[in-house]
Structure formats: structure tokens, C-alpha cells
Amino acid sequence: MSTATTAEPREQAAAAPPAPRLTPAVAVRHGGLLAWRSLLKIKRNPEEILGLTFMPLMFVALFVFVFGQAMMGDWQAYRDFIIPGIAAQSVIFATIGTGVALNTDIEKGIFDRFRSLPIARSAPLVGAILGDLVRYGLTVIAVLVVAALIGYRPEGGVLGVVAAGAVVMLFAFALCWLSAFMGLLLRTPMAVNIFGSVWMFPLTFGASTFVDPDDMPSWMGAFAKVNPVTHVTDTMRGLMEGGPVAVPLMWTLVWVAVLIGVFFPLATRAYKRRA
Amino acid sequence: MTDAIRAEGLVKRFKGTTALDGVDLVARAGAVLGVLGPNGSGKTTTVRILATLLTPDGGHATVGGHDVVRAPHEVRRTIGLTGQYAAVDQDLTGTQNLVLIARLLGHSRAGARARAAELLARFSLSDAADRPAKTYSGGMRRRLDLAASLVGRPTLLYLDEPTTGLDPHSRNELWDVVRGLVDDGVTVLLTTQYLEEADQLADDIVVLDHGKVISRGTPDELKARAGAQVLQVQPLHAGELERVGGIVEQVTGSEVRTGERTASASVTDPSVMPEVVRRLDDAGISVSELNLRKPSLDEVFLALTGRPAEDTTGGADGAAPAERTHA
Ligand SMILES: Nc1ncnc2c1ncn2[C@@H]1O[C@H](COP(=O)(O)OP(=O)(O)O)[C@@H](O)[C@H]1O
Ligand SMILES: [Mg+2]
């Protein structure tokens, strides 16, 4: 070690290129590079994706094979009913990971390193979220593969499934700003995880995921009908299984706009302050 | 421009605490500035402001002539930061960690790989290049972290407590690295809780306490102020402690602190040692321990402020390796 330090020549042959000016194109490139980092992490820990899909897949097994027959008198019909909702639920759960990962990076000082570099200020945040979108995509695919294994054949065909996937990804993109905001606000990754999970159960169960809101007690049904998860699930159901799409899609888009409108500025502000 | 850093009157408040209360400091280009202070004295806050990660509530600072608040991007182009805790991505390999930063700094794919390989070799990490950083030892992780801060060839490097928590071997390695960087012309700002570390590496030292600079100067000036060494005597029989204290006071001429079983005093001239031994011998006092050692940060603080450093975790460790024990 000591030999290496003293023998180091003053300047190496390949001098570092001057740090690039911060044009929007450069900012996008930086975000892309940091997203690449997120992807490397997924590759390193593939079990994380399995972990994300584990609970939803347990729900598939539980609801389809245990309750299915009782719910609809036909477990296959019930399977077809809940798969779109389960796919939505798994992605919504996955968004917690965005906040947890951000918080971990800050706590470990990794963000400090990035922010001390002459790169776009927002690049670490943008990169983390771009990388997470890939994670969400993999989560949906994992659920759909399992669904296919237990005989799920969507009426909407490939096109319907892809469209449904796009809708849920858009919603997840909006929701992950809420998660990012929590990740930047709370102190520890553990707190983000707990606080994030608390929302998830009422949000994903008090929706049309497993039961039609019309069959719920009136107050619960009222909650479920305004719950964005219901709109996302209904849109996906319509695209995958046939049924009305326009109205739930419209409401989904309204929610996407609201979530981004509120939490994107909050998250970026918290980011500027904290990180 | 001969000053790499100029900071005047830096103030930083967090809810309820004033972390920095008017800090002035200057780092000469090409030199090592040591910022010495106990836990909570404001070292990290100072570094974070100078690295553009925090905005000061008062005062201003320039780094390489650029204002840290008004021209943060320019500042970031000249600095490298190694934080208090190794900020490497544990899931990525050593190579991936460095390639990522090189790419962010505008290197081509091939250029980034070359730069990563070069730095890994320089820090004896080539063998571990393709292993995830979570498999590294603490010392290796620190080295990777330091390598990461050097990717962009900074002319000014911040090292925030770089050796805290390292074993003596890794610490010596890191000291060599710092010396090598200084030989290459890099300016270094180093924070530490160890007087010995500042003594070994720094050209100038600033002593922080409760967000204020309480002393500054070269290591020699500081030691002259604080007493270069500490003479410590432990009599065989605790009952003789008072008499021992009297003798030490007479010979050294400085104030004696008596603990439960030892008496100690600052000394500037080590030749008092034989004199103390002779006087103790004349008085017929047997001693179980008699030694001359470098003052700990606590003792420096006591000498400079008249009260011990608060909340110093392990500040006394710094003195241990330098201890010279006489029979
Ligand atoms: N983000 C923060 N929020 C609140 N207090 C802080 C924060 N960072 C530092 N402090 C407080 O500021 C003081 C100085 O801290 P710091 O600069 O980390 O000291 P050092 O690095 O010398 O140990 C301490 O009292 C610490 O508790
Ligand atoms: Mg600190």
C-alpha cells in the first residue's frame, strides 16, 4: 500500500474529462446512470423481487383455493376476478421499497457522495425512481406468471394485459412520490417500512380487489368507491377481463394527477432539504 | 490564489442546538488542515457546509475561490468527500462503485473502467475488485470510499474522521495514503478526535469545541500551549499519592492533577523525568508506574479551556500508541 502511494505519478495519461455542464440532457444521463445502479442492486438481490411478490402470491393461493369456491361458487371465476387486483396490490406494496431505499441511501451517506459530485441535483432521486419502475414491472410480471401457472387466461389477451400493466405502472409511478416523501421525511428505514405498510392494508383491502364494493357494508363500500386502488383495479379488470374501462380509467388518471401534483413537489422539497 | 478554503463566521443552527457558532478557518493550498475536536463539536457540520451539502445560517465560505452557497457546482468540481461513514454501495462491487462515479463525471465506458482499475490497484483492492463491497473488511471499505472520492481527481479532499474505528494497522495505511496524496499536491482537510493524528498529518490545526474555534496553530504551537507531554506517576501505596503530587509539582512547575491512584502533570521538557525519579528515590517512595506520554485530547482541552472535553468517545485512545513507559 505504501509503495503504491508514493510511486503514484502526479498526473496519469488519461486526464479526467471536465465535468459536463448541467444541461437537461446531462441530467437525464445522470438519472439513467443512477437507475443502472438500482438495476445492479436488483440483479444482486433477486430474492427481493420474490419477497415483494410473496405476500400477494400467498393471497392468490388463499383467496383462490380457500375462499374462491365459497365466494363465487366457482374458484376459477373468482381467480379471474382477483388476479388484476392482486397484480395492483403487489405493485402498490412494492412502492414502499422506494421510500425505504431512499432512506437507506441517505442514512448510509451514499446520497452525500452523489451530492458532492458535480452532477444534476435531482439525479439521485430521479435515478432511484426510474430504477424502481423496473422493479415494479418485474413484480407485475411475477404475479402474472404465477397466475398463468394456475390456469389464468385473460380474455383481453396480450394487448389487454400490457395495457393493464401500463395503467398500474403509471399509478405506481404516482404513488412512489408519496413513498419517496415518507422516505425523506422519516428518520430510519424501519420507520418508513412500518409507516408505509400501515396504509397498505386498508388501501388494498378496502377496495374492489377481493370483493365488489356494492357487497360491503355501506360505509366501507363508500370508502372503497373513492379508493384509488378500486379505480386502478377496475380499469385493469376491464382491460384484462372485459368490462367498462373509460370511467375507472378517468378516475385513475385523476388520482395519478393528484398524487403527483401533491407529492412530487413535497418530495423534491424534502429532498433538497434533507439530502 | 494560495488559500484552498476560506471560511468566515460560519454559523449553523439545528432545532435547539447551535452546531457552529462563528467558525473561521483557512486551508492553505497544498497543505493539510486538521480540524480537531471531540464528538459533537461541529466537525462534520463544518465539512458538510464546505462540501455544499449544508447551507450555513450565517457567515460565508469560498472553496478554490468559489462561494459554497452561490457557486456550489463549481465547488463540487474541485472537491472530493470521504464522509465519517464509508459511503459505498454495499451491493455493488468495488469496480461497479467506482465505474458509476466515473461515468457520472463524464468518463466514457472504457475510460471509467480504466480509472476504476487504476484506483483499485492504487488502494490494493484489485483482488477484491469484483466482489460486492459488503464482503469487504472495514479497512477495505474505507479505502474504497477514499478511492471513490478521488475518481474525479479533486484538488481538495475532505476526510471526516477517516481512521475512527480502524485498527492501528489500517490506520497507519491510511496515514500513508494521505501523505501520498499530499505529495501529489492535493490539499486535505481532515477532521479527527485524535491529537496524535492531527500531529502526524496536519500542517495547521484548528481546535473546535461547541462550534467555536478555541485554538489554532501548527502542531508544535498547539503542543507548546497544551504541554507537549504528560508525566504520570502511580505510587505503590495509594497513601503516598499526595507526597508524589508534591514532588511532581516542584520538579515540573506545572499544576498537578491527582486521580484515584495517579498523579499527572503537563511537561514541556522531557528531561525532568530523571529528576523526578531521583527525588522519589530520595523520599523512599516506591512507584508501580511512571511514564511520559502524549497528552490525550481530553488533556489538551483541559489545558486550553480549563475544563475537560465533553462527550469524548475514545478521545484518550489517541495517546495510547505513543506511550513511552519507563521502568
Ligand atoms: N441534522 C442534525 N440535526 C440536529 N442536530 C444536528 C444535526 N447534525 C448535527 N447536529 C448537532 O450539531 C452538533 C455538531 O454536530 P457534528 O458537526 O456532527 O459534530 P462532530 O462531527 O464534531 O461530532 C451536535 O450537537 C449535533 O448533535
Ligand atoms: Mg462527525
TrEMBL record, chain A:
Instruction: Tell where it localizes.
Output: Cell membrane; Membrane
The principal localisation class reads membrane
State which residue ranges cross the membrane: 49-69, 81-102, 123-152, 158-178, 190-211, 245-267
Q: Where is the ABC transmembrane type-2 domain?
A: 47-274
Swiss-Prot/TrEMBL keywords: Antibiotic resistance, Cell membrane, Membrane, Transmembrane, Transmembrane helix, Transport
Any Pfam family matching the protein:
ABC2_membrane
- List where this protein forms a coiled coil: none
Indicate how the chain sits in the lipid bilayer: Multi-pass membrane protein
Q: Which family does it belong to?
A: Belongs to the ABC-2 integral membrane protein family.
PANTHER family recorded: NODULATION PROTEIN J
Q: What is this protein called?
A: Transport permease protein
Provenance organism: Nocardiopsis endophytica
Q: What is the lineage of its organism?
A: Bacteria, Bacillati, Actinomycetota, Actinomycetes, Streptosporangiales
UniProtKB/TrEMBL annotation, chain B:
Question: Does the record carry Phosphoprotein as a key word?
Answer: no
Subcellular localization, as worded in the UniProt entry: Cell membrane
Supply the PROSITE patterns for this chain. ABC_TRANSPORTER_1, ABC_TRANSPORTER_2
| Chain intervals with Low complexity compositional bias | 311-327
Ranges for the ABC transporter domain?
5-235
Q: How does it sit in the membrane?
A: Peripheral membrane protein
| Organism domain of life | Bacteria
For this UniProt entry, the molecular function terms from Gene Ontology, in alphabetical order, are: ATP binding
In this chain, the stretch annotated as Disordered covers 308-327
User: Which keywords does this chain's UniProt record carry?
Assistant: Antibiotic resistance, ATP-binding, Cell membrane, Membrane, Nucleotide-binding, Translocase, Transport
Q: Could you say which protein family the record assigns here?
A: Belongs to the ABC transporter superfamily. Drug exporter-1 (DrugE1) (TC 3.A.1.105) family.
What is the protein name given in its UniProt record?
ATP-binding cassette domain-containing protein
